Every structure is written in structure tokens, then in C-alpha cells.
């Protein structure tokens, strides 16, 4: 059995001391591999930059170890039967995928710091924690002895984060005889009765989609922080959620986020952790795992995360529409939708998928993926007279691929949709998944089937609507952040321009109130700094509008049949 031992001397330094013990060695040379990325965030993260002082030992003596790549080491064992690798890891990243050590807790994502012994990844792995005796451990792995965890193999080890502390809070609810444990680390006052009721409701609704649950138990590991934060990461039988501020946890705004991210991450237990793209079965932690189906892995999960809250009546229809409208606003906030398909954007996650990047280059697989999932769900219901839906597609993905441990390809997914909905759905993939066709008309038609409409709303931001540019302001300056293609601002302004005056008036804090009192029919004269040089530009208002905002709403003229379709879709009265 491969053993990993973790201890520390001064938690305020955030350094963990790790010893990897490799028994039963018969090799003259061993290779050790630290992951370069983690599942749930498809970009290289180079965890090796947080390691210090890697040494190797056998029979009481130091033996040679050297780096051969940025995160791979070669150990010259000379055939010694047992090898020890020692190193330190800097645990000071508090988010859903990081690790943290202080005097109050140890929070660990093993994928950040635990090395794999090449060729022995399938062997059982033990994790021993030298932590205070009164600390409790929240983790999806079984605790075989006090503060000792056991994993079936390396993948399970690094896919099982943990929180250890003396102040963990825990509640459990059960669905279909499966225990779901809600752990909370942090200062907050949870309303456990309400939380158990709501979590049980959306869990039950998700299980109705798939028929059963993939694992024997489940753990929500919640880091409730004293400052504003929002992040979650899925794991094989757990999730880490970082959320704050803790004193606002049960207020409507933050509790809604708590429910939404918890539902999203639970859906990942099927979709991604089990129903997995072929390119990531198994995971290759040494480099990029390129795939084009992020709109399935993340987009469909984003759709179902909030959708399950509405279908289980945890959200009202109005609350659900608020979430959909936020998604729409994010989608139409830039013009990347015209330039790169959601499938190509999936592939390019590994390039710049989590960075702002250059303007209008790529779409979000989460945002457009969710909208194309909504569109597909409603279109399937309409074309099959409510005999099929996206539920059927997901159940068949689970039965045909996830349950059997088979990875799906983008062709597999498309063919499955065509079998469920018909050959006409080729058009859906050509236009909205592999193409950049506008989605508005198709979404409006689909929404009408359930008595709703896609409404275009006037953008209250005058600079965005009439002149085609966005700004951000702080106490010191107002900056240009985005420019609509072919707008009045397109040939006159540049991103990062610093605006200082409009029509001769100094901009002090907010540009919009100044504009509200001005006659803009003769244009907009802007005084600005560009690369520290003073400039003046004049913009004429356009005949069309830019950065249009959209929202989904019920139609007052919805027919009885459409209201019934709405009920079948959302499981709520119209």
C-alpha cells in the first residue's frame, strides 16, 4: 500500500510536511508525477510551483532524486525495497480547488500536492494526518483509523478533498437510503431545518432524472468565509463549496446562491464524474485533455442546477426566471457569440477559457451551454409532444455510457439526441453548437411552447445602448472596458481609455447621471487619456441599439395547452 503522511509544525507558515512511503519496490528507477491540473477546471495549474525541498531516502540514507519535467521526478532507488519521499507544500489558496492550513483547520485538495508513483496508481493509497486529537475530518473517503483515510487507488485519493478542524458543523439527510452529509466550516448560523428540506427536495428530483445515484454516500464540504466569495468544485462523491460572507448565509440573496451551487455540483455526480467525455476517461493529469463537449459537461449541468430547484419547488417560477435572466444578460453582455462556437470554446478552455482574454473571442461553455440546453429541452418537448425531453437524453447517457464506464464522444451525444428527437436536430448542432447562429429566434419559438416569451428590453446604460461602449468606474477613474463592433465607439475609442469629461463636464464618479441630463442628439464629446496622452473624440448616437438586454417572462395570452406544457416542463402551475 502506498502511504502519504501529512504533518506540520507551524500552521501560520501554511507549510505542510509530506512523506510519501513506497513499499515493495523492485525497480532501479522510480518516476513520481504531480498533477498539472485538476478535474473541474480545464486549464494547466502547475501545482509543482508550491512544492519545496523534494528529497528521497532509503535504508536510512539519502538517495538521488531529480526533476525531469516541471512536475515529474526520477528517483534512483538502486533496488531498495522501501523508498521515502519528503517535501513541503505551501497550502494557502482558499477556493474550491485549493488547499489551506492555519491554526483552525486543514483544508486539502490532494490533487494539489500528493504525488503518483508511476505504474502503481491502481494500488490502494493511505492518507495519514498528524492533526490535533480533537479535530474531526470531513471527507468522502472512509476513516479506517483515527485520522487515517483509505482510497482504492490514486485517482480516488486525489478526487477526495477534506476539511479537518475542531469546529466542523454537520447535518445529514437521506434519499433512497443514501446519506447526504452537509459539512460546514466557518462562522455562520445555518437554518438546518430549512436546508435539509430544500436539499432533500432537489436531490430527489435529480435522482428522478437518472433513476439512481452513482455512489454510496455524498458529502457537501462547505467553506463558509467571512468575505464575499463564490466557487464550487465537483468530486466523485463530494463537492467543495466556498461561499461568503457567512453572516449572510440565510439571507435570500446568498441562500439562493448556496442552493444553486449545491444543486449544480450534485448534478455533476452523474454528469462529468460518471458520464464523462471519452477524452477524459481516464484522466491524464500530466497535460491537457482536450475535448469539445464542455457544453454537455458544464453547460447542461449549469442548466439543470437551477432547473432542478424550480422542478422541486425550492424555487418559485419567478425565482427561476430571475436566474435565467441573469444567464441571458451574461450571454448578451459581449459579442463573442458571433465569433466562436460553444464546441470550439470547449476545446479552447485549455488556452484561455477562464481568463477575460481578448475582446469578443470566445463564449462561456457555462452560459451558452446552459442556454443551448434550455433550447434543446424545450425543442425536444415540442417536437415529441412532451413524450421526450432533455431528461431522456441524460438518462440514456447515464445508462449507455456513465453506468458502463464508457466515455462518450461528441458524435455519440449528437446521435443520441437525433434518436430521441429526430433527424431535424442536425440543424440544432450545426447552428447553435458547432456554429455561431443567433439563438434569439429559436429560443423565442421554443419558449412560446410553454407560454413564455423572450423579451428585448431597453438597456438603461446610455453609453451602451446608443454609443456601443461599456465602462467601469471607481473613486479614481472611469475606464472603457468593452466596445461593440461597428458601433459609434468602434472607430473612436479603445479599451482602457480613461474618461475624464463628457460634453465639457468633469466625470467624478458615475457617467450615467451626467448623461441623463444632457441633450445627446448632437452627439457625445468625450475627453480622455489614452496612453497618458490627452485626447478628445465626438460620437454620434446610432440608429440601432447595442448590448440589448433580454428576459424571459410568461405571456398574458398563453393558451391552456401552453400552460399545460409549462406545468409539464417546470412542475409548477402557470
List the helices and strands and how they pair.
Blueprint: E1 2-7, E2 15-22, E3 29-33, E4 51-58, E5 61-63, E6 65-69, E7 72-76, E8 83-90, E9 100-101, E10 105-108, E11 116-117, E12 125-129, E13 136-139, E14 143-145, E15 148-151, H1 154-158, E16 162-165, E17 169-175, E18 178-185, H2 192-210, E19 218-224, E20 229-234, E21 238-244, H3 252-267, H4 294-311, H5 317-331, H6 342-347, H7 349-352, H8 367-383, H9 390-402, H10 410-421, H11 426-433, H12 440-448, E22 452-457, H13 462-467, E23 469-473, E24 478-483, E25 498-502, E26 505-506, H14 511-516, E27 524-530, E28 533-539, E29 549-554, H15 560-570
Parallel strand pairs: 1-12, 18-19, 19-21
Antiparallel strand pairs: 1-2, 2-8, 3-7, 3-11, 4-5, 4-8, 6-7, 9-10, 10-16, 12-15, 13-16, 14-15, 17-18, 20-21, 22-29, 23-24, 24-25, 25-26, 25-27, 27-28
Helix pairs in contact: 2-3, 3-4, 4-5, 4-8, 5-8, 8-12, 9-10
The helix-and-strand class reads alpha+beta
> What's the count of strands?
29
**Form type:** globular
Query: Order of strands side by side in the largest beta sheet?
Result: 5-4-8-2-1-12-15-14
Share of residues in strands: 25-35%
Number of helices: 15
Mean pLDDT: 96
What does the oligomeric state look like here? single chain
Structural key phrases:
574 residues, alpha+beta, eight-stranded mixed β-sheet, six-stranded antiparallel β-sheet, 15 helices
How would you portray this structure in words?
This protein is α+β, with helices and mostly antiparallel strands and 574 residues long. An eight-stranded mixed sheet has the order 5-4-8-2-1-12-15-14. Strand 4 (51-58) and strand 5 (61-63) form a beta hairpin. The longest helix is centred in the middle third of the chain and has 19 residues, at 192-210. The model has no long low-confidence stretch (mean pLDDT 96).
Amino acid at each position: 500500500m502506498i502511504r502519504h503522511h501529512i504533518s506540520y509544525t507551524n500552521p501560520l507558515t501554511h507549510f505542510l510536511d509530506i512523506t510519501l512511503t513506497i513499499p515493495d519496490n523492485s525497480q532501479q528507477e522510480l518516476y513520481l508525477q504531480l498533477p498539472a491540473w485538476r478535474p473541474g477546471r480545464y486549464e494547466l495549474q502547475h501545482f509543482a510551483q508550491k512544492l519545496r525541498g523534494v528529497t528521497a531516502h532509503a535504508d536510512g540514507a539519502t538517495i538521488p532524486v531529480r526533476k525531469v519535467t516541471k512536475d515529474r521526478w526520477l528517483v534512483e532507488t538502486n533496488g531498495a525495497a522501501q523508498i521515502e519521499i519528503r517535501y513541503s507544500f505551501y497550502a494557502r489558496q482558499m477556493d474550491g480547488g485549493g488547499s489551506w492550513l492555519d491554526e483552525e483547520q486543514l483544508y486539502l485538495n490532494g490533487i494539489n500536492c500528493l504525488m503518483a508513483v508511476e505504474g502503481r496508481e491502481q494500488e490502494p493509497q493511505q492518507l495519514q494526518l498528524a492533526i490535533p486529537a480533537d479535530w474531526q475530518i470531513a471527507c468522502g473517503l472512509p476513516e479506517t483509523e483515527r485520522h487515517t483515510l483509505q482510497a482504492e487507488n490514486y485517482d480516488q485519493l486525489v478526487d477526495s478533498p477534506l476539511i479537518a478542524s475542531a469546529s466542523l458543523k454537520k447535518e445529514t439527510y437521506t434519499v433512497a437510503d443514501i446519506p447526504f452529509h452537509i459539512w460546514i466550516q466557518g462562522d455562520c448560523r445555518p437554518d438546518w431545518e430549512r436546508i435539509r428540506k430544500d436539499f432533500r427536495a432537489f436531490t430527489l428530483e435529480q435522482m428522478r432524472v437518472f433513476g439512481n445515484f452513482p455512489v454510496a454516500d455524498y458529502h457537501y464540504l462547505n467553506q463558509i468565509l467571512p468575505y464575499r466569495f463564490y466557487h464550487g468544485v465537483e468530486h466523485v462523491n463530494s463537492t467543495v463549496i466556498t461561499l461568503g460572507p457567512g453572516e449572510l448565509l440565510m439571507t435570500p440573496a446568498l441562500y439562493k446562491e448556496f442552493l444553486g451551487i449545491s444543486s449544480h455540483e450534485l448534478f455533476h455526480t452523474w454528469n462529468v464524474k460518471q458520464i464523462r467525455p471519452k477524452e477524459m476517461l481516464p484522466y491524464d493529469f500530466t497535460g491537457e485533455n482536450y475535448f469539445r463537449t464542455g457544453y454537455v459537461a458544464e453547460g447542461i449541468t449549469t442548466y439543470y442546477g437551477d432547473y432542478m430547484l424550480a422542478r422541486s419547488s425550492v424555487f418559485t417560477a419567478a425565482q427561476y426566471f430571475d436566474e435565467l435572466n441573469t444567464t441571458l444578460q451574461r450571454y448578451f453582455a459581449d459579442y463573442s457569440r458571433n465569433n466562436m462556437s460553444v464546441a470550439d470554446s470547449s476545446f479552447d478552455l485549455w488556452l484561455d477559457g477562464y481568463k477575460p482574454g481578448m475582446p469578443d473571442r470566445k463564449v462561456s461553455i457555462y452560459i451558452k451551454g446552459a442556454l443551448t440546453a434550455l433550447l434543446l429541452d424545450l425543442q425536444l418537448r415540442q417536437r415529441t409532444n412532451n413524450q421526450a425531453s432533455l431528461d431522456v437524453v441524460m438518462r440514456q447517457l447515464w445508462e449507455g455510457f456513465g453506468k458502463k464506464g464508457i466515455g462518450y464522444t461528441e458524435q455519440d451525444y449528437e446521435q443520441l439526441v437525433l434518436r430521441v428527437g429526430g433527424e431535424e436536430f442536425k440543424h440544432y448542432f450545426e447552428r447553435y453548437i458547432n456554429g455561431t447562429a443567433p439563438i434569439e429566434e429559436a429560443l423565442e419559438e421554443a419558449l412560446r411552447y410553454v407560454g413564455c416569451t423572450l423579451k428585448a428590453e431597453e438597456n438603461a446604460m446610455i453609453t451602451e445602448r446608443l454609443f456601443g461602449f461599456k465602462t467601469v468606474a471607481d473613486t479614481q477613474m472611469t475606464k472603457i472596458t468593452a466596445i461593440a463592433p461597428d458601433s459609434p465607439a468602434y472607430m473612436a475609442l479603445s479599451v482602457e481609455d480613461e474618461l475624464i469629461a463628457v460634453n465639457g463636464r468633469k466625470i467624478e464618479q458615475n457617467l450615467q447621471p451626467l448623461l441623463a441630463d444632457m441633450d445627446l442628439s448632437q452627439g457625445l464629446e468625450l475627453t480622455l487619456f489614452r496612453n497618458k496622452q490627452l485626447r478628445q473624440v465626438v460620437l454620434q448616437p446610432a440608429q440601432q441599439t447595442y448590448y440589448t438586454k433580454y428576459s424571459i417572462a410568461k405571456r398574458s395570452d398563453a393558451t391552456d395547452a401552453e400552460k399545460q406544457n409549462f406545468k409539464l416542463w417546470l412542475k409548477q402551475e402557470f
